Every structure is written in C-alpha cells, then in structure tokens.
Amino acid sequence: MFHSATGEDVHLEKKDKLANLTERLLETAALTAASDSVPNSLKPSEKNRKRLQEFGNRTAARELNKEVKDESLGYGKIYEKKKREREENLSNQKIAILELQQKIESGDKAATHSDDGGTKWRTARYELKKQVDELSEQLEADMAAAEEIEKNVIKRREKAQKEKDDKMKSAADKAEGLRTQLAVGEERIKQAPNKIQDQKDLVEAFDPKIEVAKSELDATRELIQGIKGSGKYEDTHFDINGSKDERGHTFLMVCAQNDDVTTAKICLDMGADISATNPEGLCAIDYSYFFEFDSVTELIVQVSILLFYR
After folding, report:
1. Residues near 21 by Cβ (< 8 Å), separated by ≥ 6?
2. Alpha helices, H only, 229-291
3. Which is nearest to 17 in space by CA: 75, 71, 64, 54?
4. Does 86 reside within a domain?
5. Least confident stretch, 21-25, 150-154, 162-166
6. CATH code for the domain of 255
7. Of 30-34, 138-142, 167-171, 224-228, which range is least confident?
8. Please, where are the H alpha helices in 116-260?
9. Is residue 212 one of the residues assigned to a domain?
C-alpha cells in the first residue's frame, strides 16, 4: 500500500545527512589529532588549520543545502526513489483490484452451475466485493496524494525558476548599466582632448584682452597724472576731490569709468568723496553701475556703508 512522505520521513532524511556531516567532521578531527605527532616545522599553523577546518565545514554545509534543495525540487535521488515506489505501489494496487474483479466474474459464472444455487458464493462474493471497494478507495486516495505531491513539486520548481530568472534579469540590468557607464566614460575620454584644446584656445584668446586692459589702465593713470600735475607744490597741496578734468570728472569718476579698482582704492584711501558729482549730476557709482563694472561698484558701496555707520 502506498504512503506519501510525512514530516517524520523528511526529519529522518535530514537526520541521516547530518549524521554523514558529523562523520566527516570526526574524520577531520582524527586527522588533526594525528598531525600532533608531526614535527612542528612540518605542521600547518593554527590559523591555517582553522581556515581549512572552516572551509571543510562550509563545503559540507553547501553540499547538504544543495541536496535538500534538489530534493525539494524533485531532482534528488531520494525523491526519484520515492516516486518510483509510489508508481509501483499504485500499479500493484491496480493489479490487485483487477485480480479480485476477475475472481468475482469467474465466481459469478461458476455459481450458476452450483448445486446450492450460489448461496455459498454470495457470501464469498460479498467479501471479495468489499475488498475491491476498500482497495479502490485506497487507490483513489493514494493517486490523489501522489498528484498533490507532483503539483507541489511543480510549484516549487516554478518558484525556483522565477527566482533564478529574476536574478538573471537583475544581473543583466546591472551589466547593462555598467555598459552604459562605460560607454559614457569612453565618450568623455574621447571628448577630453577637444575640451582641453578649447580651454587652451580660451586662455590664448584671453591674453590679448589682458594686454588691452593693461594698456587702458596705463592710459587712465597717465590721464590722472595729467590732471594731478607733477611738481612739489602739486604733490604737497593735492586735493583728491578738487582736481577735475575738463569735463568736471574727479579721479574716482575716471576710475569708475575704466573699471580701475586698484586706483579707485587709492583714491578712496586719500579721502575721495563718493557723493561728488560732475556738471551732469552724475557721481562715480553711476558710471560703474552703468558700465557694469561690478568690482568698482561693490568697493564704493562698501565704503558708503562704513561711512554710514561711522
């Protein structure tokens, strides 16, 4: 009669596997004990010995986990053996039922010619029919149990396959992401020489602008020197706010018109009036703001704030 696998059967199988694992560990311990008689110069270090032992334990554990997993998915030797046993039991049950049914048919034919009119046969036939019914009921239950086992195995296989497919997809997505990053990196490397050349071109183009700016500053200083005059009297009695050019511009205004921060600082240190205006009513900050010379504008604003809180 067929019996499906129970929790006790699974427990016994795991117990056997753990016993095999224990036996391996005992062999390892025996080899370790035997090595005590080896000279110290030939013995592995304690650290290496522990590493080897841990490696053996991990390997055995991996093998055990793989075997258990294979059995749960219907790929292991134990599962195949039990499956064959189930199929043989079902086949034997069907044969037994068929033999009983044939015996009943033969008895029915013989009873028609018996002296007692089939009285004894009816009693025997009842018992045979009862056995057929019991065996048929058991066969039906065993077939249902076998079918349920196969369904569970198929479900576990499908689940395992899905997990495998998900891992493969995740790995493929990561690989694709890495390939994309690599392609971006390679493209940046290709573009790097062009960007470097562009930076060089910008630097080279900026050099003439620096020369022009220096020339403009020199011209501004010469203009200031012309307004200031050169002589001992002018140096001694120089008025930073009173000295103006023909348009009525002070030194600070001229600095604001030419973005000359350095000279503007000198003028402010000498007491240049930031509120002084020309005949058109414009002061230094009006010019620096109009020409968008932010450095001069910020300098004048800072001085005005200091004067306000003084």
Report:
1. 60, 61, 64
2. 232-236, 251-258, 261-269, 284-290
3. 64
4. yes
5. 21-25
6. 1.25.40.20
7. 30-34
8. 119-228, 232-236, 251-258
9. no
293 in any annotated domain: yes
Indicate the range of 28-32, 48-52, 68-72 predicted with least confidence: 28-32
Residue 172 DSSP label: H
For residue 231, CA distances in Å to 58, 222, 234, 310 come to: 98, 15, 5, 35
24 and 155 share one domain: yes
Q: Which residues contact 238 (CB under 8 A, 6 or more apart)?
A: 228
* Residue 251 domain boundaries: 239-308
Q: Residue 105: which of 127, 125, 131, 130 has the closest Cα?
A: 125
How many Cβ atoms are within 10 Å of 268's Cβ, its own excluded? 21
* 4 HSE (CA, 13 A, CB side): 14
Sign of CA dihedral 298, 302, 303, 304: positive
Contact 251, 220 (CB under 8 A): no
* Residue 8 clears pLDDT 70, i.e. is over it: no
Position 202 scores a pLDDT of 75
Maximum alpha-carbon separation in the chain? 169
Distance CA 78, CA 63 (A): 15
Q: How many domains does the chain have?
A: 2
